[in-house]
Amino acid sequence: MKTLGQFIIEKQADFPFAKGELSRLLRDIAIAAKVVNREVNKAGLADLLGACGDMNIQGEVQQKLDVYADVQFTSALQRGGECCYLASEEHELGIDLSHDVVSKNAKYMVCIDPLDGSSNIDVNVSVGTIFSIYRRANNEPVSMADELLQQGRKQVAAGYIIYGSSTMLVYTTGNGVNGFTLDPSIGEFCLSHPNMRIPESGQIYSINEGNYIKFPQAVKNYIKYCQIEDSASKRPYTSRYIGSMVADIHRNLIRGGVFIYPETLSFPTGKLRLMYECNPMAFIVEQAGGKATTGSERILDIQPTELHQRVPVVIGSKLMVEQVEYFYSMEL
Ligand code: AHM
Ligand code: MG
Fold first, then answer.
1. pLDDT (tens digit, 9 = 90+) per residue, 33-52?
2. Which H helix or E strand runs over 170?
3. SS3 label, residue 69
4. Predicted model pTM
5. Which residues, in sequence order, are CB contacts of 23 under 8 Å at separation 6+?
6. Member of which family (predicted)?
């Protein structure tokens, strides 16, 4: 059995001049993930107590878990000293750590969605953490906020943690994708899914069909295509939508499928965030052999203009994404 820590050290040995900073950054994220996992696991209990007087089991005012997760990841990265700039989905502005004594020479910038899909927590459905790591290119004269607005293809690493029936950490540093399952008995993430590859095609489509009336025509046409019987392509496809991006994409990564959150009448540029959700998931899925686009443009090529920018996303098995792109191209 290989732990995440052992795996990271082994990988670092491939780069004799590496100083171990990225390894330490990943370690900091994994430690915070374990702490968040512990709280997510007892969320139901905490909710019961909260309903009786807004106090948690320590007698403190109960924190909502997404805020709790944000605090855990933020402080782990702050203390770890390898992150000079941190952007979290929970904060309007990025957090500049470059003036902290421990982080002043740090060369990595991190974007994080501390608890994605947190509206699912109350009903005990899987939630996740998504992270994305960039290297700081130059120190002057641009502000770090501007410097962070890099295309997704410049990510150094990206990953997610899924707090599900078991807890997993899946990440890439641009050399394939590996998945680690948390063994609660020893408190370690252990390599369980080496070299993950997404099937080239699949039979699952994941989209919030309740919004059908608000979808662009191309997406409506694709949904109809999924539902038409055709033995050659094994249609009709199965519809699976958890409403937790990490869980939906994780399932499709293993089984094969496509996840779509398009532009809608309510969210004209899509709902999901480029920097916190789409770029890291796109990097992982591409590294596993899949594809991620807006329906017409590769997600990782988009030049971000703001931290909380939203984009439409079509992500998953290569051939299925291309089929959606075909429907988009027919509407031009
Ligand atoms: P959040 O970052 O506020 O948790 O929202 C992101 C979540 C994704 O995990 C999920 O795919 C999507 O929102 C679901 O949205 P909807 O309920 O509109 O289908
Ligand atoms: Mg989110």
1. 999 999 888 876 765 233 22
2. strand 167-172
3. helix
4. 0.94
5. 8, 9, 11, 12
6. Belongs to the FBPase class 1 family.
